[in-house]
Write a structure and sequence with these properties.
129 residues, 6% strand
Length: 129
């Protein structure tokens, strides 16, 4: 797993987002045992206490659960994972729409550009070429 920790947000929030993304994308499968706190912290290059805090938050969200002697596991509830996936998609869409609006595009133009992009069409401006 590729960890990209930056200085623009709290580390624990970035860890939460990264693990949430891994669960939503299927990199961590439902019911899969997660690596230990220490192993995840070492892999991410962060303090184990920070990783522990992130995992506790994911437990509160219901994406992860603990079994006392066996460790932490990804939820087996498909609806929880789908909710996380939709929330991530919504955040990406919101940022995209804001960026496109700042460029001067209206809703219909954004939809047209998206449809073209989904069909593999590219638009490099209206140069007439």
């Amino acid at each position: 797993m590729q960890w990209q920790i930056t200085n623009d947000a709290p580390v624990y929030a970035q860890l939460i987002a990264h693990i949430r993304q891994a669960i939503a994308s299927g990199a961590f499968q439902p019911g899969e045992r997660l690596p230990s706190v220490r192993d995840l912290a070492l892999e991410a290059g962060v303090n184990p206490n920070t990783m522990q805090r992130a995992l506790q938050e994911l437990e509160r969200e219901g994406l992860v659960f603990s079994q006392r002697t066996a460790g932490r596991f990804v939820t087996e509830e498909p609806m929880r994972i789908e909710e996380a996936k939709r929330a991530l998609a919504g955040a990406h869409i919101e940022r995209f729409v804001q960026s496109m609006t700042q460029l001067g595009y209206g809703p219909e133009e954004i939809i047209t550009l998206l449809q073209g992009s989904m069909k593999g069409e590219t638009h490099h401006g209206d140069s007439g070429m």
